[in-house]
């Protein structure tokens, strides 16, 4: 059985994506209030990004359907057993990754989200998908929640939270990434420091852009 394509996960994801599509207008309205200059500053700032995400606390901020399928495929192909996710939102990407763990025979997914209302919604979605035994949601600042009690070996890392923090989150986890581990960063163009790091072969990665918005890196050593 394929967990991603079967009940309860498949119908739940359809419902969540339909809701995300419907909320697109709310997100566009919130973003439209910001000038391009201010939006870029908020997205790249290590101190002001909370203002941007607070404006969007009711918005799912979901990965695309294609990116969700990519996450599942990468986690399945790599036979991942331990996954860390930065930026849970409503848990759509979490469901794809946890479904891969189920089909890999089990494992552990640690995900973190600073907005309390989103933590509650994500937990409800994970419970509804019957994947709660595989997922631990940590509420709060990722630089604190991902600084303790982590597995010694991480197979897959998804970065999909505040873009300005991508370098800091990677630095917390880098020594735990096994050789061959995959790092997937959504909208990494808002984090030029992160891109400079993973695209520098001397840092121990091979990295490339997939489509318009996903940076895929493999840990070489």
From TrEMBL:
<dbReference type="InterPro" id="IPR002935">
    <property type="entry name" value="SAM_O-MeTrfase"/>
</dbReference>
<dbReference type="GO" id="GO:0032259">
    <property type="term" value="P:methylation"/>
</dbReference>
<keyword id="KW-0808">Transferase</keyword>
<dbReference type="Pfam" id="PF13578">
    <property type="entry name" value="Methyltransf_24"/>
</dbReference>
<keyword id="KW-0949">S-adenosyl-L-methionine</keyword>
<dbReference type="GO" id="GO:0008171">
    <property type="term" value="F:O-methyltransferase activity"/>
</dbReference>
<keyword id="KW-0489">Methyltransferase</keyword>
<protein>
    <submittedName>
        <fullName>O-methyltransferase</fullName>
    </submittedName>
</protein>
<dbReference type="InterPro" id="IPR029063">
    <property type="entry name" value="SAM-dependent_MTases_sf"/>
</dbReference>
């Amino acid at each position: 059985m394929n967990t991603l394509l079967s009940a309860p996960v498949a119908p739940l994801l359809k419902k969540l994506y339909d809701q995300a599509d419907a909320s697109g207008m709310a997100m566009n309205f919130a973003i439209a209030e910001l000038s391009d200059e201010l939006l870029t500053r908020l997205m790249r700032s290590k101190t002001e990004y909370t203002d941007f995400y607070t404006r969007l606390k009711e918005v799912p901020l979901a990965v695309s359907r294609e990116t969700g399928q990519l996450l599942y495929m990468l986690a399945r192909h790599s036979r991942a057993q331990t996954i860390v996710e930065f930026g849970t939102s409503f848990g759509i990407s979490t469901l794809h990754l946890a479904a891969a763990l189920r089909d890999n025979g089990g494992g552990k997914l640690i995900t973190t989200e600073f907005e309390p209302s989103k933590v509650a919604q994500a937990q409800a979605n994970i419970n509804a998908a019957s994947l709660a035994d595989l997922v631990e949601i940590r509420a709060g600042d990722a630089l604190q929640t991902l600084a303790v009690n982590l597995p010694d070996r991480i197979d897959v890392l998804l970065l999909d939270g505040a873009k300005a923090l991508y370098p800091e989150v990677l630095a917390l986890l880098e020594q735990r990434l096994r050789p061959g581990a995959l790092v997937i960063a959504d909208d990494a163009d808002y984090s030029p420091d992160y891109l400079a790091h993973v695209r520098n072969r001397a840092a121990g990665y091979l990295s490339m852009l997939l489509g318009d918005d996903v940076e895929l890196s493999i840990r070489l050593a």
